[in-house]
Design a protein that fits this description.
- By secondary structure, this protein is an all-alpha fold.
- It has two domains: 35 residues; 170 residues, MetI-like fold (Orthogonal Bundle), CATH 1.10.3720.
- The protein is built from twelve helices and no strands.
- Helix 7 crosses helix 9.
- The protein starts with 23 loop residues before the first helix and ends in a 10-residue tail after the last helix.
- 24% of the residues are buried.
Length: 286
């Protein structure tokens, strides 16, 4: 019994159907970009507008508000104060968190769950509670810390601990720190030298990412700075908030300046991380 010859069936093109596969990605990315860019552009336009309350567009443009803000001596002082506190906090976080996370993985692996728990505590700790706790504690300590930048840096180290620790911990998880350390020790390197010359270059992108998060958080932080030091050590966010009370256009100029500073430093850290993460052909240890 002969079978019937196979007949090729060509699917008929669907009429009126439109492929929706992949359409949502550009839509979501475009919506996210507009969500991030439009408020910044509106703030920038408002900071250079002569008047913008009667029409949909500004009624003129001027740089007078920027000149008034930048021309004040308090602008430079508060900017330097915020930059100094931010950089000191970043340096302290790197020096404290990196060795602690490294040695915990090598010498005390059972302590890692407790360190993970301590690292997430600041997420649930309000800034007001942290500020009051530090003031009550250091008021009874025979050290001149209250109402000084030192107590502000200490508070910021606690506040930004999760950002730095998680970045360093993820970088350490991506490498075999124990094998690298044993290899370095077999070549004559001690514990500290192994950390500095072998481990740190391999986790440098994670350290830089954590530094970026710490810097951006500290540079824009207002609550702790206002409660712990206030006008005795005025930072850039305090200076910005003061302008919102009497001139929103100058406050908008300060907000744009703050964003530009954070953006430039972020690009610089990303560039450094990219160069530090490039593979090296040869590594020599003496």
């Amino acid at each position: 019994m002969r079978g019937r010859p196979a007949v090729a069936v060509t699917p008929r093109p669907a009429v009126g159907r439109v492929s929706l596969r992949g359409w949502w990605r550009p839509v979501i990315l475009t919506a996210f970009g507009l969500f991030m860019v439009i408020p910044l552009l509106a703030t920038l336009l408002f900071s250079v507008s002569i008047r913008w309350d009667r029409t949909i567009w500004p009624e003129g443009f001027t740089l007078a508000w920027w000149a008034r803000v930048i021309g004040r001596s308090a602008f430079q002082d508060t900017l330097l104060n915020s930059l100094g506190v931010s950089l000191v906090t970043v340096a302290g976080a790197v020096l404290l968190v990196t060795p602690a996370a490294y040695w915990a993985r090598l010498r005390a692996p059972r302590a890692q769950p407790w360190i993970e728990l301590l690292a997430i505590v600041p997420f649930g700790l309000p800034g007001v509670v942290l500020a009051l706790g530090l003031l009550r504690f250091y008021a009874n300590v025979p050290l001149p810390l209250v109402n000084t930048p030192a107590i502000l840096v200490a508070a910021y180290l606690v506040l930004t601990l999760p950002f730095m620790y998680r970045s360093v911990a993820n970088a350490l998880d991506a490498i075999d720190a124990r094998v690298l350390t044993e290899a370095a020790q077999s070549l004559g390197a001690g514990g500290l030298r192994s950390l500095v010359l072998v481990i740190v270059p391999n986790i440098l992108p994670g350290m830089l990412n954590g530094s970026l998060l710490v810097f951006s958080t500290v540079f824009a932080e207002f609550t702790l700075a206002n409660l712990l030091v206030g006008s005795r050590f005025k930072t850039f966010p305090i200076y910005l908030v003061e302008f919102t009370r009497f001139d929103a256009r100058q406050a908008s100029a300060l907000a744009v300046i703050s964003f530009v500073i954070a953006w430039v430093l972020s690009l610089a850290l990303i560039w450094i991380a990219g160069r530090g993460g490039q593979p090296r052909e040869t590594v020599t240890m003496r």
